[in-house]
Design a protein that fits this description.
alpha/beta, about 375 residues, about 40% helix
Length: about 375
């Protein structure tokens, strides 16, 4: 199933001694596998050590790394499966990892789902989230460890050579809970994600359980049946998932070719406070400037990469409903906030039931204001069902 299995500490030590690629080649020969190509060997030399280093720096050097895992019914092999224990539940926990050396990626002209990779020639590429999702679904379908506990499994893609702005088309692609995406700009978020899925304890018992429980595809239920049995979950029921979702949205908006306004709805004031604090910390750690209005009653925040504004703060500002000159149904305050950031973000409550009331609906004001400014608005619900 895998070529080698070792801890992150040990794998990184092999790399530092210059022994990693040779050991992988020898293991392939012993298993009777076809020799990997040049791209795979470059990944062994550069991508695997990058993942191991991040695990070590996260305090997770004891987690096991199962390298080049092949699954029934899926072409190719997963670069790595991380094996360990969940830090809160202490249950088995596994993360499928796809490692990419891609540096610049753009959506192929005339395509909705194929991409041009700047530092690779040849045919167009699928979104790496598709590949990671396929590996995860194969495990859900065929592996007994996930038959009743599919929450033991997560998936991620790590573009360790790429900056967010070089892969904006990838970041804006619709994703699922089985495939998170990280770049070198979001290394801090990746390390946090790993610590939330894996405990700093030896992973060898978990990888041994994984191998012992693996079996052929016995027809015990398709991936879609497993997902239907599990169903979706309310995003707000998992604050970690909520915070990561919000962070992904904002990174994608920043990396986009065109500025847009982001509106997030469905969360109460306490949740908004938690999410904005987490997002602010993560973005600042990645080198973005991220701020909110500096003073109550002021529409003069400094310019920034990301500006976060909650409805509760907005409505406390004097004259927040004053329209732009000649444009009924707009907000001059919202317009001022929009122009002061690359990514202006508005956290709005659920106001769908207020039609006909004297109080203008913030979502309507935002839509109309952005329309007058010639700017798109993207709405995201934080109270949606999420997979």
């Amino acid at each position: 199933m895998y070529v080698i299995r070792t801890s992150a500490d040990q794998l990184y030590a092999l790399h530092q001694r210059g022994e990693l690629v040779g050991i992988l080649q020898e293991a392939e020969r012993e298993l009777g596998r076809a020799e990997s190509g040049a791209n795979e060997k470059r990944a062994w030399e550069h991508s695997l050590p990058a993942m191991a280093r991040d695990l070590v720096d996260s305090g997770l050097g004891a987690v096991d790394m199962m390298v080049e895992c092949a699954f029934p019914g899926v072409q190719g092999a997963a670069d790595v499966i991380l094996a360990g224990r969940h830090p809160r539940t202490h249950d088995l926990s596994y993360v499928v990892v796809e490692l990419k050396q891609w540096r610049r990626v753009t959506l192929a002209p005339g395509s909705q789902d194929r991409f041009c990779v700047g530092n690779f020639t040849g045919k167009l590429k699928k979104h790496p989230a598709e590949q990671t999702g396929a590996f995860c679904r194969a495990l859900l379908r065929s592996h007994e460890l996930f038959a009743e506990r599919d929450d033991r499994l997560a998936g991620l893609t790590y573009l360790h050579n790429a900056a967010d702005h070089d892969v904006g088309d990838l970041l804006s692609y619709e994703r699922t809970g089985l495939s998170h995406i990280f770049t070198r700009d979001s290394r801090g978020a990746l390390m946090r994600f790993l610590r939330e899925r894996l405990a700093p304890v030896p992973g060898s018992p978990a990888s041994a359980r994984f191998v012992a429980a693996a079996g052929p595809d016995s027809g015990g239920g398709s991936a879609s049946e497993v997902m239907r049995r599990r169903g979706g979950f309310p995003l707000l029921s998992d604050m970690t998932a909520t915070e990561q979702f919000a962070l992904d949205v904002l990174r994608a908006a920043y990396a986009g070719d065109r500025k847009c306004v982001v509106a997030m709805t469905g969360a109460d004031t306490d949740v908004v406070g938690t999410v904005t604090a987490s997002v602010t910390s993560a973005l600042r750690g990645a080198g973005y400037t991220c701020r909110g209005p500096e003073r109550r009653g002021s529409a003069e925040p400094p310019e920034s990469d990301v500006l976060l504004c909650a409805e509760s703060r907005l409505v406390q500002t004097d004259g927040w409903t004053r329209p732009l000159d000649g444009h009924v149904g707009t907000s001059a305050l919202m317009a001022e906030l929009i122009v002061r950031a690359r990514v202006p973000v508005f956290f709005l409550g659920n106001d769908e039931g207020e039609t006909g009331s004297a109080r203008p609906r913030p979502s309507d004001l935002l839509r109309r204001t952005a329309e007058v400014m010639g700017m798109p608005v993207r709405f995201f619900r934080l109270d949606k069902e999420f997979r």
